[in-house]
Amino acid sequence: MKNFTIQEYQAQVDDVLVRHRSILDILTKLQESTAKVNRAVAKSATYCGCVKINVEKQAVPEDTSYSQLKNYMKEHIDGNLCDICREKVEAELSANIFYFTTLCNAFKIDVGELITKHHEQLKTLGKYGLL
């Protein structure tokens, strides 16, 4: 598989998008693709059973500092995606990235620059930049 840049991907997305160029189409397709990601994850637990989702209140001692918080947080996932569920989740995430990129294109936002800016913000502010 040939490596490519984010800018090449963004240009390819712009080239292949024909029907859903309206901002309303883009927003609703992005929302729809997000719902499909959610459904694929839920089905891996409820239909396939390759993962279990064990949700409970996060137990964090009261005197925990923000920098220690990560040590107490759980993902609530037991198991791993099977090959079939992984393929489905990846396909839905790919569609989501596609529509995210179309939204960036609509507003002439360079995805690479967006990622670079966010990366720099994370490096500068660390976990405190996510508050």
Automatic annotation (TrEMBL):
This is DUF1573 domain-containing protein.
